[in-house]
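Quick sanity check, 17605_t:CDS:1:
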Amino acid sequence: MTLYSSPVIIDTDPGIDDALALSLALASPQLDIKAITVVFGNSSIKDTTRNLLTLFDVIDKEIEYLKNTSPHNNDVHPEEWEKERRILLNRFEWSKPVVAIGADKPMKATEHLAVDFHGIDGFGQIHTTHPHYTPKDLKNLKSNRYEMSSRDAIDEILIQLKNSPPFTITIIALGPLTNLALAYEKDKRTFSRVKQIICLGGAINSPGNTTPCAEFNIYADPDAACILTEATKGFSPSVTIQNKIEMLHHRDHVPLHLTVLPINGIHLYIKVFTNHVTSLNTPLSVFVTAFMDYAFNKMRNYYGIYSLEMHDPVAVAFAIDILTNKSLVYTSEFVDMKIETQGIYTRGMTIVDSRPKPPSLNLETLERDFGIWGYLYATNVEIITSYDYKFFIGDFLKRVFNVDFFEY
Ligand SMILES: [Ca+2]
C-alpha cells in the first residue's frame, strides 16, 4: 500500500449510525484501522458485539460481490483504488483490524441504553425481521476480515498504544467513553501515548438528544467522560511531540488531546437514501436499507421528519479530514469544559466556562470560585465549533456505495 494511512483505533457501540460510520471507515484508505473496540451503549455489549460481527459478515459478502462484478484490472495503481472502490476489495490485504470486546456497563452511573431508538437489538430489530443476517455461531466465527483479540478492549487499546511509536495512534470514539477511561485509569502513562482522541459527544450550544441538555454518549457514562476531560488539564496544542516524549520519561501521564465533535444537524434524508442506495441491490445496500427503514420510521414518529442524523459517520469523516489535513475547513476552540456527573436533570451535561476571565491570575482571582470550579485558565478541551459539512453526504454515498450524489 503506497497511500499514507493514519493508524486509528475505533471505539464503537453498533448501533445504526455506527454501522454507517464503520462502513465509511472501512472504505477510506486514509485510515489504517488497527483495532475496533466494542462498548455497550446503543444496546447491550452482547448486542453491540453481535452487530459488529454481523456487519463484517455483510462486508464479506460485499467484497465477494465486488470481486465478481468489478473489472479484473489488476494493474490499477493503489492511488486509483478509491475511485474504483477497490479499497474494500484490497483493504484487508494491508490492514486487518483486531476486534476486542469491552465494557458492559458504565463506570458508576445507572445503565441507560439507546434501545428506544435503535431497537432492542441495537440494529433496528434486524435480527428478528431479517434473521438470515445473524451469524450463527459467534464464538467460532472465522473471518478473513478481522482477528478476534484474546484481550478485552481495555488491554487491547493499551497494547496497541504500547506497541506503536508514541503519539501516532488516534482514537475515534463513537460510543460511551467507558473503554477509554478504564484504559486510562489502568495505565495512564501508556494511554498518554495516544496522539488524539476524536470523540462524537456532547451537546454544546444545542439541545441534547437524550435529555434536554445531554447527548447520549456522554449521558451513558458521564464519569468516563469526566475522567478523560480532566485528563486533558494542561494540554496545549503548541507542545511538540518531542516535548511530549520527554515528558513521558518523568511523568506518569501527558495531558490528553481530546477533540469533541458535538451533535450536529447533518441529516441523510429518506429521499436521498432511496434515490441513491435502495435500488443498488448489493449485499451492503440491501442490509443497510433494512435497518434504515426502521430508523426513518423512528425519526418520523419521534420528530416528524424522514431522515437520520449522521452523528457517527460525520465523526469518521471529520477524523479523516483532520488526519490527512485535507479539508481543514473547520473551526475549533480550546475551552474549559467539565461534565456533570451528579445532576438529576443535568447528568451528562457538557458545561463550558464562558465567563469573562480576569486579566491576571492572582490569589484574589483564584479564590473567586476556588473549590467550586477551579482552573480559571484551563482551556484544554478542543471543541469543534464549525465544520464544512457541505460535501459530507456526497462523499459518504460515493465512498460507501460508489454512487454519485445528485440533488433530488
Ligand atoms: Ca455510536
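Posting the structure with no commentary besides this: The chain has one domain: 6-401.
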